[in-house]
Here is the input.
Amino acid sequence: MKRREFLKAASVGVVGSAAVAAPAIAQSAPTVRWRMASSFPKTLDLLYGAGEVLSKAVAELTDGKFQIQVFAAGEIVPGLQALDATQNNVVEICHTAAYYYVGKNPAWALGTHIPFGLNTRQQNAWAYHGEGKDLLAEFFRKAGVVGLPAGNTGCQMGGWFRKELKSVEDLKGLKFRMSGLGGQIIAKLGGVPQQIGPADIYPALERGTIDAAEFSGPHDDERLGLFRVAPFYYYPGWWDGTSMEHFFINNDQWEKLPKAYQAALTTAAGLVNVDTVARYDVLNPPALRRLVEKGTQLRPFPQEMVAAAYKAAMELYSDLSKTNPDFKKLYDSMRKFQLESNPWYQASEYSYDSVMLRNVKG
Amino acid sequence: MKRREFLKAASVGVVGSAAVAAPAIAQSAPTVRWRMASSFPKTLDLLYGAGEVLSKAVAELTDGKFQIQVFAAGEIVPGLQALDATQNNVVEICHTAAYYYVGKNPAWALGTHIPFGLNTRQQNAWAYHGEGKDLLAEFFRKAGVVGLPAGNTGCQMGGWFRKELKSVEDLKGLKFRMSGLGGQIIAKLGGVPQQIGPADIYPALERGTIDAAEFSGPHDDERLGLFRVAPFYYYPGWWDGTSMEHFFINNDQWEKLPKAYQAALTTAAGLVNVDTVARYDVLNPPALRRLVEKGTQLRPFPQEMVAAAYKAAMELYSDLSKTNPDFKKLYDSMRKFQLESNPWYQASEYSYDSVMLRNVKG
Here is the structure.
């Protein structure tokens, strides 16, 4: 076929579909409609909202051709089954925290945070440009998904307690709502970790079915109303020194996407990551002030309790590393980065923050 | 015209251009070629590289239709005239730090950082979702540009000194390479601030034309070789507690872009922002270790010197606020956010970092 004829034939093909379907849209930009299962209810506006931010950005980037509809926890599957639904192709994408899936394999926790792990800056560094990038990608790929970091609450609080904590002894028998590996550490210290979904924390704490509950930080916790039934609010959340969420995408669905749509997801997830932290950092400070005004009593954990928890955590990680090669590989890399990073962090960010917190007080 | 006839006529229009120009490309995705003036030389691989990261992401998002070519400092205009070149439409976009332009108006500094201002997390919060978002957009718009946050070095170091600092007295007459408002504070303390471009710092420090120089952090500073001619490396960089870069885009060029291309810039800039910090956080720790191994002596600034600098900074901001309404508006908002944010920051990030730096040592 001569070039002129080929062009004519090709153009006819373009006309045919363009005229019927969408005149201004290219063949390389097909209409794609996905469903996202969020692990979060709409009441947690920033966590649930991160899915909406991605959806909006992806639609704008593709002139509305790539549409992702976000479903709150429970609308398609329960919140803690968002990953399963993605693996099984019930949905193409989910928004969740990897550490919700420690029941499948404790190594999932390293995608989000483990107690006494990296802070938010360090977790981003390790996951975007450190060894964590390839190691996590490989671990996720084996599980049938592509993972994109997708927002973060920043360091969380240590939770709500009905009674004040004086020493490690006060953890004995304490029924404490806590998820992930933190629960195993609390158990080592004599506590009784409880797995309870966000919506059920308030009534359990009110009735005294549990004695304490951790969830997130001031903005999220205020929305759950926990301050009404437990006056003591402890810090820092050593089991949630950061909390990196992920978008997980079914491997096969990812492969089917045009390159530009893969780029739309990857790039928009980057925006979501910085955007979500910024939202939390704007909304947490006034929420904390309101909570204190309403009678919440802020308390630091007793230092000996933190030290005991740290020791228990190191024992747990040592044990897990002996039997779980996935965990060992991710943990060793994370720990190496932490040891390398801390001296620089101390000289720079921590040292600057020390100056500022000493000088600037509200 | 009846609907069917309209569709037919419209489709003919699409055919005409599609067949000739680019069969698979939509009318809504025109070819756009822009030039970006970077303020940074290629030796500063992460700062210069942030422009490349944006360029690559935007090309991927638009199937290669929106091309941005990055030019290093000096290739089109000198590094510190990148903003001017954008305002004058010599280039459509630049990558720079707003505080390079305090000579135009000290208020530009608030886009990047002022001494004793916000840390990186807080600056992002204020600029993405705090009052800073609208205030900065208005200030930039009046200057003829749209500004998108675009990477950050994180907290910088306090610089390289040929002699050890014992007290504030040691600043008297000290010839110190320093840019932005920090120079005015050093001058209040008796120092002699010097404006010197990155490439000329090393020879000036070697010959003793200057006594000290600040530039960035370990990764960037190592590349400039400053450790060879000044043994004392001080922290923290109280004049650069964060350093938010921006992409500035000529207002008229921005308005001419299709919405999807505006979205490509905005979204990709978000990725650049988190990505650049992650790169620094991966590369600074080993750079600091190498510097120390080569004989660099790490020193914290004497506390009384930091206190004197803080006092001088507050005086400077008070004076500027009296005569410069742009500065006052941005400064008051930033300061209010800082005062609100610090108590939460202390309970969460700082408290967690304190635990981790105490327990995890390399």
The first helix of chain B runs from residue 3 to 20. Chain B is about 50% helix and 15% strand. Chain B has two domains: 3-154+242-282, 159-241+286-320. Confidence is low (pLDDT under 50) at residues 1-26 of chain B.
